[in-house]
Amino acid sequence: MTDQATPLITLERDEGVTTLTLNQPERRNSLSMAMLEALSEQLERVAADDATRVVILAASGPVFCAGHDLREIRGQLDQHAAQLALFQLCSKVMQQIVHLPKPVIARVAGVATAAGCQLVASCDLAVAADSARFATPGVNIGLFCSTPMVALSRNVSRKHAMEMLLTGELISAPRAEQIGLVNRVVDEQVLEQATAQLARTIAGKSSHTLTIGKAAFYRQLELPLADAYDYTAKVMADNLQAEDAREGICAFLDKRAPSWSDR
């Protein structure tokens, strides 16, 4: 068992990049109520942290995340309210990631299954080790991955999502990249380095611009085509009023590096 003094989520900051690490490897970093509460709390903190420009979501041990804690669920099989509270909290955390005003990159080593796969799909970007594997295997135990389906189906095509959901089979990291679940697959030995490099590249942009862009990306996906264009036209016009947009345009035309004020 994890010592009570050992945090379920560890936090590390490095030049604008904050890494949140699931830290219960002996329980396969499962999303118990306690783990979800800890993750929710840390997401709230980094959302309000001006020094954090990009977030990396990682995990300790050989498993990224095995989904919900089935031992916890088995102990509450006759407690519908407790079960609903668990899935509602999980849904809240996934939405926190989507609505976080900073980009979130999943750094995936090992297996990500069920709600663990949902966690990867909820992040804005994902870098996976070549040995990583993914699945939504709830169908194998009579519990369809209905909430993981929400994030999965917003990342990959319908038929690819349905194949994962209906078969419950593990897919490889290259296959996950092929269907759009992850962005990049790298050698496991350089996973941390490759993810950090991607994070630093993004952290070098205006954080104000990143916040505007991330929010607009997810909002326009919900809209019909004409409404999406109307909405994003206003976003761009408003964005042009920001100091960083004016600085960026001037820097480009003057052939110099921009100096961001994050405003």
Automatic annotation (TrEMBL):
In terms of superkingdom, the source organism counts as: Bacteria
Which family does the record claim for this protein?
Answer: Belongs to the enoyl-CoA hydratase/isomerase family.
Instruction: List the GO molecular function terms.
Output: enoyl-CoA hydratase activity
Which key words tag this protein in UniProt? Answer: Fatty acid metabolism, Lipid metabolism, Lyase, Transit peptide
Q: Which is an annotated Pfam family here?
A: ECH_1
| Taxonomic path | Bacteria, Pseudomonadati, Pseudomonadota, Gammaproteobacteria, Pseudomonadales
KW Lyase (keyword) present: yes
Q: What does this protein do?
A: May play a role in fatty acid biosynthesis and insulin sensitivity.
Keyword Transit peptide appears in the UniProt entry: yes
Identification of the protein by name: Enoyl-CoA hydratase domain-containing protein 3, mitochondrial
